[in-house]
Amino acid sequence: MGLSTFNLSTLYKRSPLKVLTIAVSSIFGLAACMTTQTMSDASQDKIQASKQYADGKFINTNKTSEQNLSKMWTAGKDFLFNKHDRAVPTLPLPIKPVEITSFDLSDSKALRFTRLGHSSMMIQISGKIVLTDPVFSERTSPVQWAGPKRFHPVPLNIDDLPEVEAVVISHNHFDHLDQGSINQLKNKVNHFVVPLGIGQTLLNWGVAADKITELDWWDAIKFNDIELVATPAQHFSGRGLFDRDETLWASWVIRNSDHALFFSGDTGYFDGFKQIGEKYGPFDYAFMECGAYNQIWRDIHMMPEDTMQAFKDINGKVLIPVHNGTFDLSTHAWFDPFLQIEKLAQENNVTLMTPVMGEIIDKQHTFINYAWWEPYLSEEAKISLKKMRELELVKASTVVENQLN
Ligand SMILES: [Zn+2]
Ligand SMILES: [Zn+2]
Questions:
Q1: Which ligand is nearest the CA of 237, by number?
Q2: What is the pLDDT of residues 235-272, one digit of tens each?
Q3: Mean per-residue pLDDT of the chain
Q4: Residue 22's pLDDT is what?
Q5: Which residues surround ligand 2, an ion (CB under 5 A)?
Q6: Domain-by-domain residue ranges, the chain?
Q7: What DSSP assignment string belongs to 131-158?
Q8: Long-range contacts of range 16-23, CB-CB < 8 Å, 24 or more positions apart?
């Protein structure tokens, strides 16, 4: 997330000295991991040919305001001085340790998944495992001694993961592309499928070139029965001071002949969602960004009402809000995404699932959603939730009465 050349999340509550140290570590980190191995000429040609590429940078379809200096300044100020006092939970959040045996890979027809945290999903499809934006590290930062820290442990030990067919990456921000996790995963993953330009970073980290597939928007690749399609998003990229928008960002369609999933990555609301819905909808489940929002940077991170509209546009059946509940990357209370999206789901009659991290959702079995986050709310938020639910009950009974009359 964030608006400036830095990822703003790394600036939060840091002294100028720490900010400088993080920036310097980041630059030296980048330099130190340079290897002689480079992506092929074909990869460069693909970048040059991309409709999203102009003058050495990737661009959004619509103009976004994150390069507006005065907006950047307001956002930075808001981020540093205007945070909700519950931006971080007062207690560690609960998890459900993943029961790996529940992922029965011999069952090629099943669709199962669990949220490992933030935007990290573990999915079983066509008897294989697919991971989205795997982040297992304690902090989302260029260094592990500073930066936003997890609200909960990862509900799964990385060593317990079986062979992974594909890791899908939405973009290169630290909360989505985590070097520590890629290092630990690289030998058990068959394919890394990434937006244009990210392949070089993976090569630098020791991922074998033949495992890397870079895709432009609307490009697709199939591994046996699993199809992965890079679809548009409205965001930006960069991990250091000098690599702003040098790699592409994307949302993803993950599907086979029986099931279809959508993963939004990080994005503002834009008309691309309608196109995605028309081309690839409906989706059984949609993992939609809902967290780290702020009106100031609304065009690169959706507000909850944008998430709801985007979900409708893509023609989703079940909404699973992600990019929340794990890291503090904005100014809102950590629980705000859950409160807002529950309200919107009720108003829009949308099926919402907010599983505890590690809880498994299986398409064959009914999932009973419950507000696990409720006991962890502030007293003030509990009162407003109670009021909202009472109001919904009154509304619902009025509808029934009107229908009876
Ligand atoms: Zn993010
Ligand atoms: Zn991002």
A1: 2
A2: 999 999 899 999 999 999 999 999 999 999 999 999 99
A3: 88
A4: 43
A5: 173, 266
A6: 8-372, 380-405
A7: EES---SSBSSSSSSSSPBPSS--SS-G
A8: 18/146, 21/146, 22/141, 22/142, 22/143, 22/146, 22/147, 23/240, 23/241
What spacing in Å lies between the alpha carbon of 170 and ligand 2's midpoint? 9
Residues less than 5 Å from ion ligand 1, measured at CB:
1, 175, 266
Q: Is cis: bond before 355, omega within 30 of 0?
A: no
Ligand with minimal distance to 249 CA: 2
Number of CB atoms found within 10 A of residue 203's CB: 20
H-helix or E-strand spanning residue 27:
helix 16-32
CATH number 3.60.15.10 given to 8-372: yes
- Residue 224 φ/ψ region, left for φ over 0, alpha for ψ in the -120 to 50 degree band, beta for the rest: left
The 10s digit of each residue's pLDDT in 32-56 is 444 568 998 889 999 999 999 999 9
Determine how many CB atoms are found less than 10 A away from the CB of residue 60. 21
